[in-house]
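Tip: read the tokens left to right.
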């Protein structure tokens, strides 16, 4: 399996936007689903969004980000994006990409820090 590489985090003011990328160096067709999770200091990791790679019309979002975050794919670039709009200070966390492979394996990216200032 291919290890995902997360990028795109940064510092943004409340109300701003960021786009995170989860890039794979090889094909993603051996993956069932890709998700984004986040972990804030002192809190448990939280699932934010997920998408089914076999059927990219199948996706899900945490209630806390619905209407603000959008997960999408660029199969040709082996990349999954998380567009984050209307960011809030409570969105501050390290964001991780995860790939769930067809053989049951799971691979995490290294994480990318998102900081939203008030």
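Filled-in amino acids:
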């Amino acid at each position: 399996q291919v290890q995902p590489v997360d990028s795109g985090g940064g510092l943004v003011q409340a109300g701003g936007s960021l786009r995170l990328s989860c890039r794979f160096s090889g094909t993603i067709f051996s993956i069932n689903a890709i998700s984004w999770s986040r972990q804030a200091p002192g809190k448990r990791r939280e699932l934010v969004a997920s998408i089914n790679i076999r059927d990219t019309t199948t996706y899900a979002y945490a209630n806390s980000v619905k209407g603000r975050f959008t997960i999408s794919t660029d199969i040709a670039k082996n990349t999954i994006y998380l567009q984050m709009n209307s960011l809030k200070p409570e969105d501050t966390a390290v964001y991780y990409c995860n790939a769930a492979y067809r053989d049951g394996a799971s691979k995490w990216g290294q994480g990318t820090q998102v900081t939203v200032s008030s």
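The chain has a mean pLDDT of 94. DSSP finds no helices and eleven strands in the chain.
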